[in-house]
Amino acid sequence: MLVKSVQLGTPVSDKVRQYLKTAPKRTRTIVQEAQRVEAFLSNIMQLGGLQDDAWDFCQEYPKLRQLNSLGKQIVIRMFRSNSRFQGYKVDFERHMLSPSVLFLAGSLCEQFDYTHTSPLFGLNALDIGCGALSEYAPLAKNTNLLSQFYGDRPPISAELLQMLGAKTTGLDPRTNCATTYDYQVAYRHRVVEFDGIERWVKDHVNQFDIVSCLNLLKRHSFIYAHSEPEQIVRFFANVRRSLVAKGLLYSTAPLPPSSSENRRTNRRIFQKAGFQILHEGYYLIAERM
Fold first, then answer.
1. In terms of Cα–Cα distance, which of 3, 12, 92 is closest to 45?
2. pLDDT digits (tens, 9 = 90+) for 60-96
3. Long-range pairs for 21-28 at CB < 8 Å and ≥24 separation?
4. Structural domain spans, the chain
5. What pLDDT score does 24 carry?
6. Could you tell me which CATH number the domain at 14-113+120-288 has?
7. In angstroms, how far is the first alpha carbon of the chain from the final one?
């Protein structure tokens, strides 16, 4: 049985609501879609590892169902391009992308179907901490094949954004290794160590409409170098430089939004970095001020 829907996104504040009345249509649409998508995904996140129930539930949202189908084809091609996984039968029929991937694509796409395959055409996107097609770390014995694949942190978000029409650049400390994964990515992959990201974005001022850090804040090497709120503020202040005026930042919350104190700290981090929060929940969308 599916769990009761849990609203993760907080209501839009009066200040943000007033701003959205005069915001460009694309920004208004993204924020409205973000509220709907996160509220919907809250059901799936509550299901944890119950992939079958999550897949059944996703069928009730046509846009997410079709985005999941497109993303799943990317996953299958990446997976099958690695010789470690060839020759094994893996059931992808009811496979679900991660909620963060669905949130990113689902909120950016006002609508999506296979007759309109480039809804993000005209956008320049940057995915920081995108992952890479190379072996990431040895895993415990008896781990299933899909877990091994995802343990390599494949660049699914960056590739999906590119397939949806955005001109996408992905940053990661690792390279895409053709001898490990025989899959040619369509997005532009740049090898940058986490402690070099701030220098990289300083050299790419006002280049991107969208910057995603949804895959970044759980990476251990990033956390090690940005363990204090002040360090995270500095990082996002530098990321802000790479956004066009009114560009949007996607990020997971630096602190779990499980308490009012954590939520206040999260708000202060982005505000001090020069952003206005437009959507606040487990995921955040903020606009460059």
1. 3
2. 788 888 999 999 999 999 999 999 888 888 889 888 8
3. 24/246, 27/246, 27/248, 27/278, 27/287
4. 14-113+120-288
5. 85
6. 3.40.50.150
7. 44
